[in-house]
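Key result, reporting period 2: structure in, sequence out.
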């Protein structure tokens, strides 16, 4: 994103910065226009607590995740459960994300129906 002229910074409390050295989020900056989190939300053990922390930093979160299809697939019918790696600990339906958005007085915009 920086290569495209956007002012992006790195912050991750779970790992060290290997690829964006020198672009760590400034400790003095209290708010950001938007937080991006691609393929992160399915790894959150306590999503609401994590989202509350993010909302302190920004009113906008742009994230990606695969929504649980309807009807909910059985364990062997959907690859995204990820049983072989055990890293997807939180999965979301469209309804769940709308409930979360309401909790934060926000809105969900999705390309999924």
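The corresponding designed sequence is given below.
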């Amino acid at each position: 994103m920086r290569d495209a002229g956007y002012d992006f910074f790195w912050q991750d409390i779970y790992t060290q910065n290997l690829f964006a050295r020198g672009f760590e989020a400034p400790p003095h900056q209290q708010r950001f226009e938007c937080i991006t989190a691609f393929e992160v939300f399915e790894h959150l053990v306590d999503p609401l607590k994590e989202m509350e922390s993010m909302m302190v930093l920004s009113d906008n979160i742009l994230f990606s995740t695969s929504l649980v299809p309807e009807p909910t697939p059985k364990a062997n019918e959907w690859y995204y459960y990820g049983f072989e790696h055990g890293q997807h600990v939180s999965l979301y339906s469209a309804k769940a994300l709308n409930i979360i958005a309401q909790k934060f007085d926000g809105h969900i915009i999705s390309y999924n129906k």
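The mean pLDDT is 92. The two ends are 28 Å apart (CA to CA). This case is discussed further under Risks and Mitigation.
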